[in-house]
Write a structure and sequence with these properties.
The protein is an alpha+beta fold. 29% of the residues lie in helices and 26% in strands. The chain has a domain at 2-100 and 124-151.
Length: 188
């Protein structure tokens, strides 16, 4: 358990050093939380002068010894506790059903936000934060990869299946793509 606590502390510190703000654990007791590692949590990083958005991030989704040690984060223009539930459900799927990795999509089973057409998530590189956030190594050992979970629509999932992840991410580079808007129109 000491190793798990140290692992979790490294992850939280990695986020804080990249985002220049300390995250606060959000208490959440609904859903399959009890089936996740005991040190698992979701951290909330408040909007700041430097980062004008709220950030929600898993902490302890990866565990020491995992073959696919990943942590995920999502962004929001406003404080959005519903994202905590999406991250918990995604972590639960990763830990108990099928390991997720870069380029995978997951069906949230519910919209990102009320009225949103984005009911899926795409595990993507942390383009807004770059390679400094993406990988955490300590003493030459990989601790975790940190990926951005981008909410996407069913039509975007189908586009990715047909044309590939690079083609979909190229759509995200268009000026009309607003990753913070849960009511955004599909890019395809």
């Amino acid at each position: 358990m000491i190793e798990n606590s140290k692992h979790r502390a490294r992850i939280a510190a990695h986020y804080a050093s990249n985002w220049d703000v300390t995250g606060h654990q959000i208490e959440f007791i609904r859903g399959p939380v009890s089936e996740l590692p005991p040190d698992f949590g979701v951290l909330e990083f408040a909007s700041s002068e430097r980062r004008r958005m709220w950030t929600y991030a898993t902490c302890g989704m990866s565990q020491p010894g995992d073959s696919v040690p990943i942590e995920l984060h999502m962004f929001s223009a406003v404080q959005a506790r519903g994202i905590v539930e999406l991250l918990i459900a995604t972590a639960h799927y990763h830990r108990t059903a099928k390991s997720l990795g870069l380029g995978h999509t997951i069906n949230f089973g519910t919209p990102w936000s009320e009225g949103s057409k984005c009911e899926y998530g795409l595990v993507s590189l942390p383009y807004l934060d770059g390679p400094r956030l993406e990988k955490l190594d300590v003493d030459g050992k990989r601790i975790a990869d940190f990926y951005w979970l981008i909410p996407i629509s069913k039509s975007e999932v189908e586009f990715k299946k047909r044309f590939g992840i690079e083609a979909l991410e190229a759509k995200f580079d268009e000026p009309s793509f607003n990753y913070l808007d849960p009511l955004r129109r599909s890019t395809v």
